[in-house]
Amino acid sequence: MTKHRTLKAVGFFFVLAAVLAFLALPKSQAGAGKPIRWKATFEPVINANLIGSGEFVGGVNHVNINNGSGSNDTPCSATGTSGSYSYLELQVFTPSLQFINMSGFSGDSGLPSSYGFPNTKADWPHCVEDFLNNNLHPTEEYAHIILRFTTCGCGNTKTDLMAMTDGEILPVHMMFLFFTHNWYTLPKSSTPYPYLNLMMNAHGYLKTDATHPDIYIKKEGNVWTAYVDTEFGNSFYPPENLVGYNSNDWPTTKSDGILGQYATYGSSQVGGKGKTTWTTTYHYPWAKAPLKFQIAFTKY
After folding, report:
1. The dihedral sign for the CA sequence 272, 273, 275, 277
2. CB-side neighbour CA atoms (13 Å) of 36
3. Distance between CA atoms of residues 250 and 73, nearest Å
4. How far apart, in Å, are the Cα atoms of 122 and each of 109, 114, 195, 264, 270?
5. Would you say residue 280 has pLDDT above 60?
6. What is the 3-class SS of 265-286, one letter each residue?
7. What whole-number distance in Å separates Cα of residue 93 and Cα of residue 243?
8. Helix (H) or strand (E) holding 193
9. Residue 159, by phi and psi: left (phi above 0), alpha (psi -120 to 50) or beta?
10. How far apart are CA 69 and CA 59, in angstroms?
């Protein structure tokens, strides 16, 4: 856990700690001493399917922009041995992010449509498509959003974003998290919970004949611009089989993908007149779809 009280990475990430990031501004933006201030802007790009409204200023109008570093208990890069990482992240608490015709979804099928998103009726993965495209984000039900870029798990040994030189390009790992609830306030066990938490997870790997990685950051002066153009389909880590995984922790998968989490509940009785007990089962359907955008983080 860093001093900024943000996500702690274990393996790739221990996502439960992400919820705690919303409880307070990090010290870098809390006004102590000479704070580091950040603002961020979604840059215009051809065929982008995610845009943001205006300029996001850290600590203003329900926006947090955090940067920091830390270390893991285990190595986190694909080929290196360092457990160190650094990150830049945007947290938005009012509706200002819009997905535009994000399509081409594939993934698990045959899942009950009742376990989808509010105001959607389609089965997975098209309920994800409806949810993303038909709402400004965050929504009332999904008020917790983190867009994070980190050097952890990208196959490169350089780990400090702030030490980048002008014009340098560094592959990064992207996580885009949409929370409808956290695991410390689960609903009553006797009531089905039909909403999904959602995690988009992708790495900056260089495809054959490509000029740049799927996801990378380029530094120019006091601006760190993240470039995202991914289909969540790197060949290094194909989709992992999560059948049988039953935990309220996000699985620490290495594969790229759009991962959902929902819970179902079953009852049982001990003996003919025994007390009814409820068992929670967690499900993790996955999907893939093209995602393209650019966001510039400016330090001032």
Report:
1. positive
2. 15
3. 17
4. 11, 9, 13, 18, 37
5. yes
6. EEEEECCCCCCEEEEEEEECCE
7. 33
8. strand 193-203
9. alpha
10. 20
- Say what the pTM is: 0.81
Nearest to 293 by CA among 125, 48, 114, 117: 48
- The separation between CA 268 and the C-alpha centre of its own chain, rounded to angstroms, equals 35
> Dihedrals φ, ψ of 199, to 5°?
-130, 120
Q: What residues pair up with 299 in beta bridges, in sequence order?
A: 38
Residues 121-173 have pLDDT tens digits of 888 999 999 999 999 999 998 988 999 999 865 556 788 999 999 999 999 99
Q: What backbone torsions phi and psi does residue 162 show, to the nearest 5 degrees?
A: -70, -15
Pairing of β 193-203 and β 173-179: antiparallel
Q: Dump pLDDT digits (tens) for 37-53.
A: 999 999 999 999 999 99
Alpha carbon dihedral 125, 127, 130, 131, in 10-degree steps, equals -110
Which of these, 230, 205, 229, lies nearest to 155 by C-alpha position? 205
Q: How confident is the model at residue 119 (pLDDT cuts 50, 70, 90)?
A: confident
CA distance 103 to 260: 17
Let me know: does 102 contact 49? Beta carbons within 8 Å. yes
State the Cα torsion 184-21-84-69 to the nearest 10°.
-160
